[in-house]
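Whiteboard transcription, Tuesday session. T.W. wrote the structure tokens on the left side:
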């Protein structure tokens, strides 16, 4: 994505000085990151999508105001080089005037080496630590999330897990209540844009929005001098800009890994219709195969979202084992996804395993929901 493809909304980004209080906080949080003690490390989920990153930054900024004298650091759990793949985040951060040079990526801090310097960890947009944070379990002291409750870290406080459309809704609600002075135009723009993107502009037909999302987004938009439609259209256009991305880029742009018993699976959220993807990559099957092998997966799903012109969904499933493929598709077919096969021609076949492509008629079933469905699957697969 080439920045400048989408105009800055109302010239708003140009109005934010790079020495704004938020950027000063981010600069201070990164300064001395290799040796200083950290009272609270705020971590988003491994996919590091816009909701995860924006919520982690905003929550850390709020805790800095609420817990005077503590060192709070928002942590972005990807390499800095991969940030460019999150096109909606690139656009939203640049539009909001956030200096990404002040963000702490995995390149900047090794978790193992920093263990003794970190007192506590806050989880935002997820509620259980990933394997890269092994050993940090007893340090989790706060959770703000909107996914299925994994029942971990019961002593965390706050421990807020609500099924809203966006983690940014929970962070925004907390900031408006406890530190409203820090919800200026910059923070309002960042959080409101995130909520609108996650809820498809507060559209109930997408099956994501809740009354709380509407309320918080409304309060944030009142502080943000940008029309709602303009903000939503701009950030959504940025999300769907995949120009120059190959299949590997698309799969790792917004990817999460899971386990189901002994089965290892991953789900990528890809902003591209399957029909277009098939046209631009005749080796698509082999690319899925290679990605699954690289990540040691038994199953790789791609949940594709796009506008044609209305919101649409497709699904791709690759499985190393044919029997696992048939079992999972059979199970998901009974969960109301409304899957119908997409015909393919001229594709280079997989060397191992099986891949199939589907149109998903039920637009309400997102990655969050399908993950919950798979967690309920009890039939042994391996």
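and on the right, the sequence the group agreed on:
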């Amino acid at each position: 994505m080439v920045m400048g493809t989408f105009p800055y909304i109302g010239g708003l980004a140009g109005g934010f000085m790079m020495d704004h209080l938020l950027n000063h906080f981010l600069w201070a949080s990164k300064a001395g990151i290799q040796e200083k003690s950290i009272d609270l490390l705020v971590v988003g989920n491994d996919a590091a999508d816009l909701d995860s990153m924006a919520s982690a930054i905003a929550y850390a900024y709020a805790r800095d105001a609420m817990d005077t004298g503590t060192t709070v650091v928002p942590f972005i759990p990807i390499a800095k080089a991969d940030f460019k793949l999150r096109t909606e985040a690139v656009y939203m951060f640049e539009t909001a005037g956030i200096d990404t040079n002040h963000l702490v990526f995995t390149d900047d801090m090794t978790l193992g080496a920093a263990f003794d310097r970190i007192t506590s960890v806050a989880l935002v947009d997820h509620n259980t630590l990933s394997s890269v944070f092994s050993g940090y379990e007893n340090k989790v002291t706060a959770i703000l999330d909107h996914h299925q409750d994994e029942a971990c870290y019961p002593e965390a406080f706050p421990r807020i897990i609500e099924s809203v459309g966006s983690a940014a809704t929970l962070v925004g609600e907390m900031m408006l209540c406890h530190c409203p002075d820090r919800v200026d135009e910059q923070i309002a723009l960042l959080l409101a844009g995130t909520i609108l993107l996650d809820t498809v502009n507060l559209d109930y037909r997408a099956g994501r929005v809740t009354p709380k999302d509407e309320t918080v987004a409304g309060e944030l938009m009142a502080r943000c001098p940008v029309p709602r439609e303009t903000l939503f259209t701009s950030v959504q256009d940025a999300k769907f800009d995949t120009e120059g991305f190959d299949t590997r880029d698309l799969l790792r742009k917004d990817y999460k890994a899971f386990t189901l018993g002994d089965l290892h699976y991953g789900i990528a959220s890809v902003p591209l219709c399957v029909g277009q993807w098939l046209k631009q990559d005749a080796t698509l099957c082999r690319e899925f195969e290679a990605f699954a092998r690289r990540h040691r997966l038994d199953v790789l799903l791609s949940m594709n979202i796009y506008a044609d012109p209305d919101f649409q969904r497709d699904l791709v499933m690759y499985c190393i084992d044919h029997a696992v493929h048939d079992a999972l598709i059979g199970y998901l077919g009974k969960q109301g996804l409304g899957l119908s096969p997409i015909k393919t021609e001229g594709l280079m076949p997989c060397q191992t395993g099986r891949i199939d492509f589907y149109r998903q008629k039920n637009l309400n079933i997102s990655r969050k929901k399908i993950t919950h469905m798979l967690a309920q699957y009890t039939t042994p697969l391996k």
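Someone added at the bottom: Residues 76 and 105 are 5 Å apart (CA to CA).
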